[in-house]
Amino acid sequence: MLKIENLHARVEGKEILKGLSLTVNAGEVHAIMGPNGAGKSTLGNVLSGRDGYEVTAGTVSYNGIDLLALEPEARAAAGVFLAFQYPVEIPGVNNTYFLRAALNAQRKQRGEKELDSMAFLKLVREKLKVMQISDELLHRAVNEGFSGGEKKRNEIFQMAVLEPQLAILDETDSGLDIDALKQVAQGVNTLRSPGRAFLMITHYQRLLDYVVPDFVHVLADGRIVESGDKSLALRLEEQGYAGVRHGAVA
Amino acid sequence: MNEIMNEQSSTATALRDNAAVAEALGRSYSAGFVTQIEMTGLPPGLDEDTVRAISAVKGEPEWMTNWRLDAFRHWQTMPKPDWAKLNIDPIDYQAISYYAAPKKQPKSLDEVDPALLETYEKLGIPLHERAALAGVAVDAVFDSVSVGTTFRKQLADAGVLFCSMSEAIREYPGIVQKYLGSVVPTGDNFFAALNSAVFSDGSFVFIPKGVRCPMELSTYFRINAQNTGQFERTLIVAEEGAHVSYLEGCTAPKRDENQLHAAVVELVALEKAQIKYSTVQNWYPGDENGVGGIYNFVTKRGDCRGDDSKISWTQVETGSAITWKYPSVVLRGDRSVGEFYSVALTHHFQQADTGTKMIHLGKHTKSKIVSKGISAGRSSNSYRGLVKMEKGAEGARNYTQCDSLLIGKQCGAHTFPYMEVKNPSAIVEHEATTSKISDEQMFYCRSRGIAEEDAVSMIVDGFCKQVFRELPMEFAVEAKKLLEVSLEGAVG
Predict the structure, then answer these.
(1) Distance from CA of A105 to the nearest CA of B (A)
(2) Do B447 and A88 touch (CB under 8 A)?
(3) Distance from CA of A108 to the nearest CA of B (A)
(4) Which residues span the domain enclosing A184?
């Protein structure tokens, strides 16, 4: 589904990604771990097309198309979703309205029929139930006045409604207490399916106790330096990143 | 019968929706067309004879002519106001024609020239009552005269008087003489004095004691003739316990010359009366290089004359090259309430200096001001507001919220709040914010699939929510679309 080859990217003139390669197949859950400043969030931002990230070399093929050539909204319509590390507030814009506009904008780009309010509301009700999220979130403005946990839950809820093929979770676990973490993890697990892949960017092993990944990668200094299964995450927890990086260089 | 009415009104709405879509696709000022119709009028120029001529053509009584002449003489002695943050080329008052009207003066709606009906049809304001928007009575003012007023009979049955100002002067001189100029005196300011001298028409509303007006009333102002100024005068009186909601809309053709619009609106609310006045102002704003557009100098003031009365102004201002407008409320009666909700959007080279005045005289009077300014392009957008607590305003309160949103780097937003508090028990609160549409917000929307322009509309709409929900439904939809069209090309 996703094939990243030798990806180099710069932010404000500084090279952050230095030859990153990664292959993700449908149905797989990949965890990307690594120390601060390794380029984890940059990877998420480059894949979803944020301004200010300049790709200087390499390719990203998504379902056979050149992902980097698409505008952010076209990537979204093609099924790429980024759960933000810091979800953005949009004052005065109702959460439900926003989500319906997003879903219909995507459907329109894909040449599908837009959902009317009744059909959309039905969909939202279903998803709320599955995700065990209270409908109180729907009546508020997008992320306005939300607690950290509510913001992250809202991201997962958006993901559930938009049903992406490739979901990138950028430190969705950071700043969550254990109950909120469990709820977010449960949401992700519910959405796991053979047709959908996850790229979970995280600092800590903690999340991986609840969402068990198929692969764990260590990202250091702009490259994947080690890959393995979930046991790699446990080892990182014990030894820290310093050992891994040292091992990679050796 | 009811069913048929509903069906037709939904057709009318659908037509308006289609027009709005076409407008959005056409990416231009869709109300910019010119109506070809035989006109009559006065040549450019302004002196006492002009004032007399206007009064004569309207068949006005002598007291009215003298009232105008007094105003004119006063005007000649007045300096032009220059305190607003506006750059205005000098206006040549002798180059303007002060009266223009369609040659054929209809006696009733059935006799209105088809070209005029078509004009209003195109603007989404059908004047035939069978096609008209259900529940909204319209007075249509074309250049200097009212061309028709719908639903008059239904309103008359309820005791509501709704007609053109010219007609009111002839038919209800007692009421007009009692209230005209009682809120905005002829010498109030330069533009109000000019208006008092040469106003040609406008709307008149009188809601007698205890009556709740059975439908929304509205006036649609259209400037068509070239080199003509529009000077309309509106007077709304709500007697004890009466309620009325009034809407006002405005458009003009695209022209390279600036045109002058100087209106006066007076509202009088007696004891326990309530007046809600909503405006969607879409005068031609000029092109993207700042050529042409309407100069909009308007004096709007409401007088809460009776205890427990309430006057509420809601305005959405997207048009005009220059806007100079401060809808105000004099809170005379005890416990009276004044409100001002405003969205002012400027783009390209538009300049707006707008706000309100809340003058608290009575005890325990309350006022609320919510102003939302949106600036794009190279425009300049200023909020100017006065909150005055006079000596007798025991326990009076004001709350002001003033937010500015900037789009792009070349526009300006300014806030000039003035406060005068002479009663120590009065409470005045002021909150102000200035924000930009952030790259973060844009990327968040786009990463969810929403295109750039739609994201801007959505963010702006959210910013204006507090004001839009004060508008009657029909108008809120209209206002939202208008903002979208006005913001085209503001990003990217």
Answers:
(1) 6
(2) no
(3) 10
(4) 2-249
